[in-house]
Amino acid sequence: MKFGKEFISQMVPEWQEAYMDYNYLKGLLKDVLKFRQRNTAAAATPRASLKRRVSLYRAFSGLTGRYRGSPRKNSEDETILVSAIDGEGSEGYYQTMFLRSSDEGGEYELVYFRRLDEEFNKVVKFYKGKVEEVMKEADELNKQMDALIALRIKVENPLMGFGGGAGGGSGPAERRQDDGKKHGIWGILYGEGRVHMEAIEEVEMSRSSKIGKGIKPNIASLEVLDHVKINIEPETPISTLKVILTSSSDLSFTKEELRKAQDLMTKAFVQFHKNLRVLKSYCFLNQLAFSKIMKKYDKITSRNASKAYLEMVENSPIGSSDEVTKLVERVEATFIKHFANGNHRKGMEILRPKTKKERHRVTYFLGFLSGCSIALVVAIVVAIHARGLMKSEGRTLYMDNIFPLYSLFGFIVLHMLMYSANIYFWRRYRVNYTFIFGFKPGNALGYREVLLLSSALSVITLAGVLSNLDMEMDKRTKSFEALTELVPLGIVVVLLLIIFCPFNIIYRSSRFFFIQRAFHCICAPLYKVTLPDFFLADQLTSQVQAFRSLEFYVCYYGWGNFKTRSHKCQDSSVYDVFYLVVAVIPYAFRLLQCFRRWIDEKDPSHVANGLKYFSTIAAVVLRTGNELRQGKKILKILAFSSSGIATIANTYWDIVVDWGLLRWNSRNPWLRDKLLVPSKSVYFIAMLLNVILRLAWMQTVMGIQDFPFLHKKALVAVVACLEIIRRGIWNFFRLENEHLNNVGKYRAFKSVPLPFNYDDEYDNKHA
User: Fold this and answer.
1) pTM of this prediction?
2) Could you tell me which of 445, 144, 119, 135 has the C-alpha nearest to residue 275?
3) DSSP-derived 3-state class of residue 275
């Protein structure tokens, strides 16, 4: 792979604009090369050959003389002069003076060096800004570790048996209290106050070596606990309600509190260590890029400018600063000691999780199961035509009872296929979906894994359909085969068992992540809403028909007679009520999430979004009422008008807010300034499809119940599938817009909540 492609593949997607623009500089060098090639004929004149022959008569410099590229002070051989210029305040920049601008074609090289300086100054400025940010984060972690160690001492009480309380008496503890104020208990980040890092270790050692000797261990001061409050988010709805009712955040010094604080600090350390590694990678990649581009310049122009320029790069902050490297080493040492019990291997496995390896068996089974699915589809089509099932008298009975049972799995498989396509295109266009969703490194499913799961489910479902194609009852028993009639229910049970299986099989981390986010949706107002939560809730709004299929499962197998394929669900008022409720539930989740986000963020846009979902709920209620109570004109008018308002509001929000399109004053008219897909027509087609597919759900209001050769149940399934397809299209552009927002703000890291909040007086005193 060429360096340019490798360079792009190794970039942090959110920082892409902060990297050196290698391809643009490479293009400028191509202009230099083209000019020199055009003048090659002139260089081959007798005068040039005479110059070449004259060079053969110059004095021999010797084999041990200075080679090309060695430092020479001859001004005639100098190409560039690089200097660092101090700007206003602390900002400085680097400037390159090209000394051969009078040479033929020198204007091309002058443009190259000007752009090279712009790129280098951009990289240096960005790097210095990020270093300042991580140093501030280190300061904050300093204070958090002060509080954590003090809390650990208070809870575990390591001084029991030493004849005094923690921090009591006079001597080393009091003397180190002042040192703690000066350096911080976690001064190891800067190499200061290292003695304080030994607090816990000395306590542990004292248990085995100092007991009975009257020597007090070197421990940290507990004074800091008087100035902090706990900042741990509730983990359950009950704990959330307790926080709301009590509104107290004082420390209670319990082991559970200590455990939660340590868990949060572990996450903070892991994220901080990742930030530092990404910053090191940014520095290294840009250094390598400047080296490559300058060597390419030397090769094209036959000059020797790279040495002087790369010396300047080495002496700049990205080449000479070792703050980040030292910080990485100190973070690792601290984490291993305080959070891995001194186990280096365990600590490094947590800090640097292994990347996920592509497995050939996934590809193999994907191909195998996909082939099986195609074969089963062919077998079903052949069986239907061979047995004349389309003209059978039992066709209507089958479509009313069996088809809705199997359509549930069709909705799930289609949604998984759309999600796998989303993952493929997110990767292709470098949308950092794993960062946006907050997947753990190495645990995110790729599109092959999702396709594998969907193909496995489709094989099981199609096999069930093939076994359950009987249209006529057994004439002797006047019923269908009980075992085959229970196949759909068996598939649902197996599916639920796999989802909730506690064993580490079938992508347990992904299943548990899904369960956790689904639970957050159910308890929407009691949890802080994150992007994965409302993204999943949006997916559920496109699976209304799947929820209704689950309701039909309960009615059909619970109160119907599955052996004779008969039920009275449509005649039950309870069934009608739940038919309405299950359709409203997903939209209610989103409405409650908008309400919670408005409380947390005070952003009025969440109120507008909530009103949009409220209008959708009203439309769903009126549409369903019109569907169940045919013949009432006033209900049909209300259903039609509410559905129209909801459709317009949802379509506008999809395109303008969620996708960020229809910006008339952008660089790309009626789109947005930044686009990941090169073809602009893709965006216009997506907007058109979104409008058309949004209108599909109004077919029930308009009274379209049957099509020629298409049963009513089949029509409902087709409309549900169109909504799932629309959601799949929406997914790609929604995450593309989110990714571009992160890129615009250079937001490449997740903010991890810290366990302790210091009061303002203490912060000002120890600033």
Assistant:
1) 0.82
2) 135
3) helix
